Amino acid sequence: MKADLTLEQAANVACLPGIYKYSITLPDGHQGYGFPIGGVAAIDADEGVISPGGIGYDINCLPKGTRILTKYGYAIPIEKIKLGDELTIIDEVGKFRKVSNVVALLGRKSEKLIRITTRAGYEIRVTEDHPILTKNGMVEAENIGIGALVAIYPFEGVEYEEPEEFVILSGEEFSENIKKELRKRNLIPLTSRNSKLQIILKLLGYALGKQ
Fold first, then answer.
1. How far apart are CA 196 and CA 16, in angstroms?
2. Which among 96, 69, 97 is positioned nearest to 155, based on CA atoms?
3. Are residues 73 and 134 in the same domain?
4. How many CB atoms lie within 10 A of CB 21?
5. Quick one: 106 and 23 in the same domain?
């Protein structure tokens, strides 16, 4: 508990508007999102606040080096993810692939990781409480047994490599009105590291692929 932000989070909760008397953290408490997991606080309904971090979800973790698939099909190690990155996710029932932005980053030390290996050779290492999608819904990793049917996502994506930066399009070729609009959309100067380049390349791929 002293090794992470548990006690600091408990103190922060004690300073919330409308808290009734005390912020309490139980002996098995640990770091959470804003509120410590295992923390208890009563908040006045009229003068208090509502915090998503205080309504009951734990932190599930993947270790350093785990490949995470991004919106554009390349994979990056989990430790290189930044706030605002767009990642590919599957909804909780495993039916839809969609994109979601990273809104929070938090790490913790875990003494134990579980390695899950499928018959097809796919492998993942996770903390005991990490949810795994099965035919019966989400199940914590520690409760996955031999022979269990788990969902996989076969597309792994290519490893991301930061390109050498160079200018592809300076914008000087256009009139002032066009340049104004392109700058507004962060499209000039268009460099090899411009975040919009991935979208442009994807559109070009669709356009050229139809010919």
1. 40
2. 69
3. yes
4. 8
5. no
The neighbour count for residue 14, using CB atoms within 10 Å, is 13
Asked whether residue 85 is assigned to any structural domain, the reply reads yes
| Cα 141 from Cα 125, distance rounded (Å) | 9
Is residue 84 classed as helix, strand or coil in its secondary structure?
coil
pLDDT tens, residue by residue, 132-174? 888 888 888 999 999 999 988 888 888 888 889 999 999 998 9
The pairing of strands 137-140 and 123-127 is: unpaired
Q: Does the pLDDT at position 57 exceed 60?
A: no
What whole-number percentage of the chain has pLDDT above 90?
Answer: 29
Residues 174 and 199 in one domain: yes
**100 and 46 together in one domain:** no
Residue 19 lies in a domain: yes
Can you tell me the distance from the alpha carbon of 142 to that of 130, in angstroms, rounded to the nearest whole number?
Answer: 8
Report the CATH number at residue 105.
2.170.16.10
Q: Is 22 helix (H, G, I), strand (E, B) or coil?
A: strand
Query: Can you tell me the mean pLDDT for 43-59?
Result: 64
| Owner of token pair 């200018």 | 167
